[in-house]
Amino acid sequence: MCTGKCARCVGLSLILLSLVCIVANALLLVPDGKTTWTKDHLSLQVWLMAGFIGGGLMILCPGIAAVRAGGKGCCGAGCCGNRCRMLRSVVCSAFGLLGSIYCLSVSGAGLRIGPKCLMNGKWDYHFQETSGGYLLNNTQWNLCEEPPNVVPWNVTLFSLLIAASGLEIIFCGIQLVNATIGVFCGDCRKKVG
Fold first, then answer.
1. Residue 44's pLDDT is what?
2. Is the pTM of this model over 0.85?
C-alpha cells in the first residue's frame, strides 16, 4: 500500500476513534444517564476530560491531517505539495500520540481508583484501596448507593477509553512512520492526466 492510501485509511480510523472517545467521555459526565450527580460527585478522572481532550480533540488533528495527506488536494502541486502535507502529518501524529497517551493514563487511573460514590452516607473513592481489585469482585459493585450503577458505568466507559486510546497510539505510530516515509520518498500513486 502506498503512503497516500495508508494515510487516508489511518486518518479515517483516527477520526472514528476520536468520536468514540468524545462520546464515552460525555457519557461519563452523566452517570446512569442523569445530570443529578454532575456538580460535586464525579471523580477527578472524569473531570480531567481525557476522552474529550486527549483521545478526542487531540486525535482529530492527526486524523484530519492524515486524510488530507492521503488526498490529492490543492495544497501545493505535484510531489512537493504532497510531501508538505506528509510533513504536517508527521507533526500532527506526534501531537496525537501525546493526546492518546494522556487519555490512556487518565483512563487507566480512573479504572484503577474506581468511581466516586455514596457508600454508608459518605461520598468518596471507596474502591481506591483495592488498587483495581474491585474489578474482579463484582459483588462489591452494588455497595455504591448513589449514583445507581455507577461502577459498571465507569468500568465500561473507562475500558472503552483505554481500548480506543490504545488503538489511537498504534494508528498514530503507524502514521508517524508512514508520513516520514512519505516525506522522504514521496507518494507511490501514479499521476493521472
1. 87
2. yes
Concatenated DSSP letters of 114-151: ---EEETTEEE-TTGGGTTGGGT-TTGGGG--BSTTHH
Q: Which long-range contacts (CB under 8 A, 24 or more apart) does 37-42 make?
A: 37/146, 37/147, 40/123, 41/116, 41/117, 41/118, 41/123, 41/146, 41/147, 42/116
Q: Residue 78 in contact with residue 19, Cβ under 8 Å?
A: no
Burial group, residue 129, by CB count within 10 angstroms (0-12, 13-18, 19+)? exposed
Residue 75's pLDDT is what?
47
Question: How does pLDDT run across 60-91, given as a tens digit for each residue?
Answer: 999 998 888 877 654 445 555 577 888 888 89
d(CA 64, CA 14): 8
Average pLDDT, the chain: 85
Neighbouring residues of 49: CB distance < 8 A, sequence distance ≥ 6: 25
**Per this entry, what is the length of the chain?**
193
User: Closest Cα partner for 66 from 10, 24, 124, 113?
Assistant: 10
Residue 122 CB contacts under 8 Å (≥ 6 apart), including other chains: none
Q: Which of the 8 DSSP states describes residue 187?
A: -
Is the pLDDT at 31 greater than 60, yes or no? yes
